[in-house]
Give the backbone structure.
Amino acid sequence: MSVTVRRYRKGGWEVDITSQYADGSRFRNRRRAPMRSKTGAQRWGEDRERHLLLHGRPVTKKEVPTLEEFAPRFIERHAVANRRKPSSVDSMRSIIRVHLMPRFGAKRLDAITTEQVQQLKGSLGDRAPKTVNNTLTVLNAMLKKAIEWEVLGRMPCLIRLLRVPRTTAGFHDFGDYEALVRASQEVHDSGELIVLLGGEAGLRCGEITALEWGDVDFTKRELCIERSEWKGHVTTPKGGRLRRVPMTARLTDALQRHRHRRGKRVLTGGDGRSFTSKMVTDCVRRAARRAGLTRTGIHILRHTFCSHLAMKGAPAKAIQDLAGHQELGTTQRYMHASPAALESAIRLLESSVIPPQNGDILETAEA
């Protein structure tokens, strides 16, 4: 090791220390000495030389990137590299752009505090708890990846999700669903088929548009759901696994009546082009308005499928498998009864048997 002292160009003295370690590596450290005299600078340099000899070269502290700088790396190396669904990647990008960037974009990741996270939650007070939790989940994932990739040394803040109240999913009652099926026959040639695929097979919108004739087995009366489409991207269904759904007689008949050779997709227009999700959604909404229903979304059909199965007494596990739910907790949202079913249940009490008293004969409440 060597210590060289020379005049600093802006006054004072510069100490130049050159070190060579046992592994053959070399390290050079040049700093301005805090002493005014050359002798003092020499002693300061020799003390620093001994420190480097005992403790090794100083660890250079990595500069922590801002959230704006880290976000593209997170999206590409985490979401895209792990082959997350295009819809999920797009959702992450949207959350970062709309919610995280305005508040944390210019902040270094290690400078995000727990109080600032709470302020973010407060600014989203008009949003649904699930929306807030989705935002917090993306932020949490970014910080954890930064730690995993050694960009951060530790978690800089505490992130607590909001409690989301458990609610039942909205659905069409039996009468409303039949009215929707009738109305769908009037709005489009494929309207009835679309409604039945959602309401009697539980297909999601992307699964409906991606359904091919090769997925339809008329002999076994069964649908094989193995793909989904989102904005032109064809992927596996949500959950990443295929499922098989037996067809009702009405759905089987509708599919047979709509068989064509215009393309491999079941829903194909006269021009040979496959239906888009917007075309499917618009068709269901028009049918719902024609039927006088307040619920017009296409996903209501999937809720209806699960709810009707539950009301008919289907086991939760069977509904889970037919709908392709990953968690049984998701299926539990549908294990309820419609208002009509509740009314029928209460009416059972009106015909209940009144226990005999003092030797009286049995009588019913209606007697």
Observations:
- The beta strands are 2-7, 13-20, 26-32, 216-217, 222-225, 228-230, 233-235, 243-246, 353-354, 363-364.
- The mean pLDDT is 88.
